[in-house]
Design brief:
single chain; mainly alpha; globular
Length: 434
Amino acid sequence: MEVFRKFLDKSSISLAFLVFAIIIHFIFILSLIFGFLNPLFHDSSYRLGQGSDFYAIYQAGYNIMVGLNPYIEKKGYMVVPYSYAFVYHPFIAFTMGLAFNIFPPLIAYWVWVSILLALIWTSCYLTHRICKNFYKPKWVEYIAIGMWLCFSPIYLELYMGQITLITGLLTFFSCYAEMRKKEIHSTILWTLACLIKPLPYFLTPAILSSGRTRKVIYNILIFIFSVVSFGVVYFFFYYLDYTTKRSRKFYNHYGNFDFKTVLYEISIFLSSDTSWVAENVVRLSIILMLIFIGLSIFATIYSKDYLVSTTLLGCSYFLAFSGVWEHHYTFLLPFIILLWVRDESRLKWLLIFIFLAIPTPFYFIELYNCWYFPFSLLYRSSKLVPVLILFVLLLTKAFKTPRQELIKDSLKDVITLIQNGFKKQASDRYLNFF
């Protein structure tokens, strides 16, 4: 009985989880070499190949070196084995793309994977520091660190050489800088994350409502400078054009987990006619944005809980926009970990993490070739439903921590904070995540 009690002890269970997570992490690394996990995921089964997204950045950098447009593929100038079209901010091509061209493509990919792994391990160390500084129990720390190591979308990020993970990590580092009262460091890290991928811009309402007006202004100025420096023409005629088209496009392939594809699956069940989803994708996008982004901003104005607001705004992307890939969920991971560390009632955050961390049922559906309703709906919902539940939980939590009793008074407080945010922050006015 004593052994059984010891096994059920939080410290023992959390330490076992950490050991399990470390093992899974090393399995991820081994699978990058040998590929035995690839059949578990759509992206590693049906995409062009390992490193295909990274090679797009590498090729864009090479194009710049030889005087070509980074957004085109010209016969006779391809130096990578395969790649998708380059669709990112020209800043990426002129910085990361050029820098990695000092290596051959394959070596460059593994250098990038090594950098991402080093940043993940750095995040584990910073999580340890956060737990120590805020006097969190060891069992909380063990699970928080383990969460960094066994999150399966991270494997896909490493496999494809994607840049969503580094966007999330830089945002996490920015949050850590805020905790350390380092305004300049926080601004630089958040701005760099935004230049790599625009996902962190979703956090802007929360940053403004917390009185970080200078942070947003500096970000905008640096963004404008980057557009001018790295090609106004490239930005407006290629990057912005792609981004606009993406918001109007309907993706019904099985690499996509957005809300509209779930509606598509339901429409298959209710009617053989699914064309209405594709035909009304813009209207659906607007409705979803009004619901999820609108509720997030409303909650941000009403609530004084900064961490809840930022996580809500991050969730809104996954619920309102088109083209949500499995690896995109790496952006949410830092916020879920911070919620786990901070809150006393934390089991719900761990359960959300588990459902987002485990692979989708892709392998079994593919094995038995049952890509039809209701299995296809189950597959689509395996990531969307946990995010939807997370959104509802956060919304509920936000309305339990009002700035003022009335929304109009909360709005006045936010306006005052934005106005005061033009001034340098006093040390006692920095954000307190905990």
